[in-house]
Each structure stands twice: as structure tokens, then as C-alpha cells.
Design a protein that fits this description.
By secondary structure, this protein is of the alpha+beta class. It contains five helices and six strands; from the N terminus they run H-H-E-H-H-E-E-E-E-E-H. The longest helix is centred in the middle third of the chain and has 13 residues, at 53-65.
Length: 141
């Protein structure tokens, strides 16, 4: 996890005002990648007890919009947040327990996957989520 001064510099570089709420949210996401917003609220409230759920949600939205954190939205699951940005990684999610792991690019150069017809789009990113069952859940069957 980056020191607070480094987190503040990341915010400034993105043109954002440095606030205790934003720094706490960045620290929470960095400490527990793939956390839901509810997880982040809980963790931030441990650091800043008098913070509203809406303030955390607003900070998550702003940080994701600026590319400081990444929001992933698996189908049928709440959005999750991570601070691993700037690369083209994907995710592996256990259908039983929800464990989420980072996995490398599917194949080749970004965007990793091709489509049979791009309909005139210039594709620059592919977001892939692999679903399955983790080893712990398999062993528990």
C-alpha cells in the first residue's frame, strides 16, 4: 500500500482535491482488492468513523471515473473495486464463495479478444470474467 503522501499525489495528478475520505477509500481498496462498496464503507468507517455511506460511494465513483481505481461488475454480483489499473488483466470468480482473483490477459496483445465483426468500433479493451469453482469450494463438496 502506498504511503498517504503518495496517495495524495495520485489524487493531485488526476486533478482531484485531496480529502481524508478519498485517501481512506484509496487505502481501503488497496488493502483489500476486489472489495464491494459495502466492504469499503466498513473499512473506511474503521478509519473515519463519521463518514456517510454516500460519501464513500461518491469517492468510489469519482476515483473510478478518473481511472485511479477500477470498478468491475460481475453479472449477478455487486460491483467490486481494485487499485490495479493500467494493465489489461481479467478476473476469475468462484461461483460458490465469490473469491475473486486477477488473471493475465486472455491471449496476445490488448484487447486480448477479437470479434468477428467490430461494426466500425475501434476496440481498445476487453473485460473478461471467468467463472468457476475455487479449490477450497471443490474440496468442501
Amino acid at each position: 500500500m502506498m504511503p498517504t503522501d503518495d496517495l495524495a499525489e495520485v489524487l493531485r495528478a488526476a486533478g482531484l482535491q485531496v480529502t481524508a475520505q478519498r485517501v481512506a477509500v484509496m487505502r481501503a481498496v488497496g488493502t483489500r482488492p476486489h472489495s464491494t462498496a459495502a466492504d469499503v464503507v466498513e473499512q473506511v468507517r474503521g478509519e473515519i468513523s463519521a463518514i456517510s455511506r454516500q460519501a464513500v460511494y461518491d469517492a468510489l465513483g469519482t476515483l473510478a471515473d478518473k481511472g485511479i481505481i477500477r470498478r468491475i461488475q460481475p453479472a449477478g454480483s455487486p460491483a467490486r473495486y481494485e487499485d490495479r489499473v493500467g494493465d489489461n488483466h481479467h478476473h476469475l470468480i468462484c461461483r460458490v464463495c465469490g473469491k475473486t482473483l486477477d488473471v493475465g490477459c486472455a491471449t496476445g496483445e490488448a484487447p486480448c479478444l477479437g470479434v468477428d465483426h467490430a461494426h466500425g468500433f475501434e476496440i481498445d479493451e476487453a473485460e473478461v470474467i471467468y467463472w468457476g469453482t475455487c479449490p477450497a469450494c471443490i474440496a468442501a463438496r
